[in-house]
Write a structure and sequence with these properties.
The structure is a homodimer of 354-residue chains.
Chain A lengths: L3 H8 L3 H9 L7 H14 L5 H7 L6 E5 L5 H16 L4 E5 L4 H13 L4 E5 L6 H16 L3 E5 L7 E5 L1 H14 L5 E5 L5 H16 L9 E3 L4 H14 L5 E4 L2 H13 L9 E6 L12 E4 L2 H13 L8 E4 L2 E3 L26
Helix pairs in contact in A: 1-2, 1-3, 2-3, 5-12, 6-7, 8-9, 10-11
Chain A binds a DNA duplex (30 and 30 nucleotides) through helix 2 and helix 4.
Chain lengths: 354, 354
DNA sequence: TACCGCAGTGAAAGCCCTTTCCCGCAGGGA
DNA sequence: TCCCTGCGGGAAAGGGCTTTCACTGCGGTA
């Protein structure tokens, strides 16, 4: 690899001058030398060593991001928002997938700190795990103490800046909607119970039922992975235990899609026999059939806000921005089925009747 | 930020010794000093400066990846394959989204070269654009000349190692299937015509029709963005121009989902009135309703192969691995509708009849 | 004429690590 | 007793870049 001094030698100038030309420094350089340097750069196919540059500049410019998985639509949308702001400000993003592994999360904080990122954004659910939470907070505090900025998205265990989707109200909206549609037996397809996202959404749901003087017994909840297969499997278990269910709340859209798959496999028409509500409103939600009723979260905006917090002026006290959830009514919800026969039909092709 | 010499000073040892302890060097260090160093590291919350490390070690270990968009399921799957191999070998991946912008692609090659990556993988379609292709090849050659390894996925304009999905055969399979089902008027919802992926898939399709003594006129093809909205829009244009269409081939699954949306909006039952075939078999394909018939590409495997090529022994001549396409029959295809009334029905709820 | 200021350039001091090279010392063989 | 070996540790030389600082001319002012 050609180095800066190779370029300088070839152009017959000092490395200092070459550096100035290449980086468009404010220091003036005569046109002749500039030409010679640029020619040498082209001839040698010179590309500056980024590590050396980053080392030499004290300037820290990149921003580190830790998410569950960028290819999960929930995080893809958030990341889109993060990127938008970062790109506008000429920042590079380093994105790490933790796959919801707390240890990996901790490791990535160190890794990113080692890479001298100017700021750190953690997106995703928090954990009901005191030891881990404390460790993470210590690491973040240590990072903050050296001038690093930190923001979290959707996790309240952190003491600094945060952007919070209103998961609780979202759960409430889903619950109220189903109550209003007359559903009595409501099952919940939930994510891992260790995640605060799961418990927050559940709490909202419980509240809605409580307002009707009803409760949500544990036997009507099944916990599984927060993805399509988890949703499919949890729905199957739920139906096995309680065939009278007339509605299912899935705690995210991926799980809802899994739920629809299971319902279809069992020929339980949606929404005729069973209503389904998802959560998040990821883009695919409108394209499944029937189109998914869901609770929308402003995902892109959450990313935008978080990045703005972290790149903007530092506040004296931690800022928490709560972003609202909104119910999007589509075609997977309807009035509770009349308890006529007392059990869902076995018909094979009933799945999309209205 | 604490530095290595801070740690060394605090532990009362030289930076050399501290470095050896921290990196688990093979040089022996007495337990006492080791303890002191580790204690200092913990107290100072020391994290090595990654840039300084990377600069000091000549060792290049990271691998650069350029894709269209990691959150696009096609690339998400490929990336999963890349990750798997990279992680096994303790390599870090630097993933860049080019969003199919040739200039950005060129920039990222430089960026990654500057970051001293050990290898470079470009995934996605090539372009019918001689000037760009030449430029890219020059840059890659320059990189290769300094010891960098390069592999491409799904682009044949490159002279080095390559993993190629068999797009042409895939197109052929889709075409043959529709011919066998008796479809006469076949429309194509295609990606941008500048992409080789588009033209390769089209070529296979043409070949299948040619074997039946038929051709694929340009008026039966609509080019649009390779995503859901592109597919929806292209399908609308196609149907406007040619209401007699009985089948649509979408050149990727995202477009197919868009096509299904448009067909649903127009109350054209699938597959009763119109059959649809997608391409890629991304995970969501089985979850839309009706489940999408599509041409499967071994996406994860493509990633695995490419990473293996690039991290394995260097070959004397460039290797090209062609991975097969496979038709997956699901529920969006069926026999061509009898030309009874001569036009599709207006019924509103016919969309999932079989 | 002496001096000041400034544009343009280069020398060199970092930035923070890793790793080679070298040194002191203790133990073992002759 | 002397020498060789090998272990444990430190000094210092990079690794490639940026940036400060010092220097050289030059035009302009007093």
């Amino acid at each position: 690899m050609a180095t800066l001094s190779d370029v300088a030698r070839r152009a017959g100038v000092s490395p200092a001058t070459a550096s100035r030309v290449i980086n468009g420094s404010s220091k003036p350089v005569t046109d002749e030398l500039r030409e010679r340097v640029l020619a040498a750069v082209a001839e040698l196919q010179y590309v500056p060593n980024a590590h050396a540059q980053l080392l030499a500049r004290s300037h820290r410019s990149a921003v580190g991001v830790i998410v569950h998985d960028v290819s999960d639509p929930y995080f893809a949308e958030i990341t889109r928002g993060l990127q938008r702001v970062a790109t506008d400000q000429g920042r590079l993003l380093m994105i790490c997938n933790s796959y919801r592994d707390p240890d990996r999360e901790l490791e990535y904080v160190e890794l990113l700190r080692g890479h001298q990122v100017a700021a750190l954004i953690l997106a995703g659910s928090g954990y009901h795990d005191e030891a881990f939470t404390r460790q993470l907070n210590e690491k973040l505090a240590a990072y903050g103490a050296t001038g690093g900025r930190v923001a979290v998205i959707g996790r309240h265990e952190h003491s600094g800046d945060a952007v919070m989707p209103d998961n609780r109200t979202g759960g409430y909206l889903a619950g109220r909607e189903l109550c209003e549609l007359g559903h009595g037996a409501i099952g919940v397809v939930a994510g891992p119970r260790i995640l605060t996202t799961t418990t927050d959404r559940l709490a909202g749901l419980r509240q809605a039922l409580a307002e009707q003087g009803r409760d949500l017994p544990e036997r009507r909840i099944r916990y599984a992975e927060f993805d399509r297969d988890g949703g499919a499997e949890a729905t199957a278990r739920l139906l096995d235990a309680d065939p009278e269910l007339t509605a299912i709340v899935a705690l995210n859209d991926s799980m809802a899609i899994g739920a629809l798959a299971t319902l279809r496999a069992r020929s339980l028409a949606v929404p005729r026999w069973v209503s389904v509500i998802g959560f998040d409103d990821m883009p695919i939600a409108r394209d499944v059939t029937p189109a998914l009723t869901t609770v929308r979260l402003p995902l892109v905006d959450m990313g935008v806000r978080a990045m703005s917090l972290v790149l903007g002026a530092e506040a004296l006290s931690p800022r928490v921005e709560v972003l609202p959830a909104e119910l999007i009514r589509r075609d997977t919800t309807g009035p509770a089925a009349r308890a006529t026969t007392g059990s869902a039909p076995r018909a094979r092709r009933a799945d999309t009747a209205s």
